[in-house]
Design brief:
Elements lengths: L18 H13 L21 E5 L2 E4 L4 E4 L14 H11 L10 H13 L5 E5 L2 H16 L3 E5 L17 H4 L10 H4 L2 E4 L4 H10 L2 E6 L15 H12 L2 E6 L11 H5 L5 E4 L10 E5 L1 H4 L18 H13 L2 H24 L5 E5 L2 E5 L8 H5 L3 H13 L2 E2 L8 E2 L6 H22 L1
Parallel strand pairs: 3-13, 5-6, 5-7, 7-8, 8-9
Antiparallel strand pairs: 1-2, 2-3, 4-10, 9-10, 11-12, 12-14
Helix pairs in contact: 2-11, 3-11, 7-8, 12-15, 14-15
Amino acid sequence: MRISTALDVVGAAIDRPSARSAAIMARGRARFPGGVNSPVRAFGGVGGEPFVVARGDGARIWDVDGNEYIDYVLSWGPLVLGHAPRVVLDALTRTMKDGTSFGMPTGLEVELAERIVERMPHLEMMRFTSSGTEAAMSVARLARAVTKREHILKFEGCYHGHADSFLVRAGSGVATLGLPDSPGVPDALAKLTLTCRYNDLEAVEKIAREVPLACIMLEPIVGNGGFIEPTAEFIPGLRRIADETGALLVFDEVMTGFRIAYGGARERFDVTPDLTALGKVIGGGLPVAAYGGRRDLMSRIAPTGPVYQAGTLSGNPLAMAAGIATLSVLTRDVHDAITAQTARLVEGMRVVAATHNVPFTAGHAGSMWGFFFRAEPVRTFDDAKSSDTALFKRFFHAARRRGVSLAPSPFEAGFMSAAHGAHEIDVTLERLDAALGAAVADRE
Ligand SMILES: *Cc1c(COP(=O)(O)O)cnc(C)c1O
């Protein structure tokens, strides 16, 4: 196997043999739709052949052909400490010696919950699930049950997992593949999901006064439509409208949780939601998500209340151990350090874009970041779609050929980890400079 020492090769496109990746993908396509187990991985958003990953270490991943990449996908967000961090591997090894699943209460789940509440005191009670989809779906069920209302309001470009109620103008892969509404979702259910443009408070106000809403749910910073920040008025405005109309306010922090601030969106925006969905970072790379919030609401979940929700592997000990290890390392200082590295990358990318004279807008919140090839700021998903996605595709492939792994879609956020040091970021910027040069030249 050829091992390229990619970190020594700055800028120049590397000749990347991909025979092994191609062979595995060919076998995978016979077994999985598109050869993948989650749609965006198939590279539909950028074209071309996905690479098959062999392993990761810190800021880097290697594909099965031995090519090395500095990774900014980080499993779509969970790996805030980077790939294969010692502390998580040790916790897993220790924990699994005593068994991998009991389907019974364990001390580990209480410990992870306590670590979450330390940072998010408004999650007075919570429930662990195995995926963000389950968490968001359960929040909607709970909101409908306690308000005795059926409609929910979400925003264009926001993704809340693939439960039926949320596949309406959704972000992430749904946006990447241009599938605004999925077949198979009964009309009767889709009708109960209303959508507004992100950052459009007036539209929310109008809908909330006309239709009794069980909840208003949002990504407090959008990551699944590309990186889109709320205006200063938006989140406080949603809180006020929810209070005035009897709707619950739900933050879907599956992506933003423990990334956009040490304590998440409540700390960043000083607005407290009634219910919150969490995922990704809290599992440190294992399948964990959670939902929680006000005690009076969460007490309505079975067995203390009538709202049913369950899971065979919920609170799984290995997953809990990975989450505990991750949060124990992710102190406020570490969070701030990762944030500073993210700022260094985003600032550097602005300089790179200016050098090549391309329209560009970029931002970050903590360790979550993103960019669009568009001159004006992006406030809505329509804005995001009006960016130069053709240039994005060429840039994505040029970056990949130079050993930088970006999300294979213009409508996904990027991430940073504690393993990305100044050296990795500087090398990344040199490569992205060369990549953007190549992507621009390609147009001409
Ligand atoms: C990833 C994500 C989900 C879905 O989580 P899964 O674990 O993929 O089911 C839901 N909401 C947001 C905001 C996400 O980023």
